[in-house]
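*** Fold description ***
***
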Amino acid sequence: MARMFRVLGFWTLVIALMAFAGDMFEFSMLFFMQTAVFFLLGYLNFTERTYMLMFWGYMILAFLGFTYWTVFEMGIPV
């Protein structure tokens, strides 16, 4: 399970580099931070249950953040 967090770190790094190349600096910094966190968690060797709980917590936080941003920050298109 720890290896999957390193895989998530790899893919977030790929997304961050593409966003950085596309001049989306805030977006790329968000994904660079996620990359660092995923790699750090991947090398801490927690139990599989702990990794699953952390992943579910991450998914809930990400979906709530995405929903908040799309509903309240982006506004209604005209």
User: Anything to note?
Assistant: DSSP finds three helices and no strands in the chain. The mean pLDDT is 94. The CA atoms of residues 10 and 35 lie 7 Å apart. The helical segments are 2-21, 25-42, 48-73.
